[in-house]
Design brief:
three-stranded antiparallel beta sheet, 8 strands
């Protein structure tokens, strides 16, 4: 599957672009109840910690439902990753980016998703896969185009003057250089706005979690070569001489 060169050029130039149809609409909508159940389970588990910073964010989605695991092998997802980072890239982190009803979350601050700035060199790519239609009222994300190579955070005034919002439909994805400054919106509606976010890094970089050990073998065995490479199976460090000589 080939990436649209016009979208790739926009992404490389401005640091952010919308890619339509990474999932079908039906696929995206079918993931919503699975994700909501995972969110509800986590909220219940952390009920005694009301100040928990990651409320409404589910970590390590590949072990929270098979649809999330299978997304890691999606051809359209990888077509664009190959163009902007490499065809050997791996998952750094895999989380939800849902906006709770009548509210917002930790993403509301102006921030980037990577601490490194290497001018003109992409170390991390963010992919937000929408499970709902993003709108002005349900917390669509703000991005500041052409901000991916700057070290310092823009001021509130500068960000507000230059930020744009993208409005993916369910199944579309927003790709962005993880150094692009952005912030979550505010959900003014009575329903949650659901989204998945995959942070992707170079194959020589460390992942947030040791996914080859974190993911049960019975799930890993359902993946093909692309999915196994993407979770980091090809970049493991041997723990013994026996493993080294495999």
């Amino acid at each position: 599957m080939q990436a649209d060169p016009r979208i790739v050029e926009t992404l490389k130039t401005t640091g952010v672009a919308l890619v339509p149809g990474v999932l079908s609409r039906d696929q995206a909508l079918s993931m919503r109840p699975v994700l909501q159940q995972a969110i509800d389970d986590d909220l219940a588990r952390m009920a005694d910690k009301p100040d928990y910073a990651d409320r409404w964010m589910v970590h390590n989605l590949m072990v929270r439902g098979k649809p999330f695991l299978k997304l890691l092998e999606n051809e359209r997802l990888h077509a664009y990753l190959s163009e902007v980072i490499s065809n050997t890239c791996i998952v750094y982190a895999y989380t939800s980016s849902s906006m709770p009803p009548k509210g917002t979350n930790f993403s509301r601050r102006i921030h980037t998703d990577s601490p490194r700035v290497i001018p003109e060199y992409w170390t991390n790519v963010g992919v937000m896969v929408a499970l709902d239609d993003f709108t002005e009222t349900n917390g669509a994300t703000y991005f500041m185009p052409n901000s991916q190579w700057r070290f310092e955070s823009p001021s509130e005034q500068e960000f507000e003057a230059n930020a744009i919002r993208l409005y993916p439909k369910a199944g579309d994805a927003i790709y962005f250089n993880a150094r692009t400054w952005h912030r979550g919106g505010i959900n003014e509606t009575d329903a949650p706005r659901h989204c998945l976010t995959i942070n992707v890094c170079r194959s020589y970089m460390k992942q947030r979690f040791d996914y080859p050990r974190l993911i049960p073998n019975e799930l890993i065995e359902t993946l093909g070569p692309v999915g196994r490479r993407f979770i980091g199976m090809d970049t493991r460090v041997p723990a013994s001489l026996d493993e080294y000589y495999l």
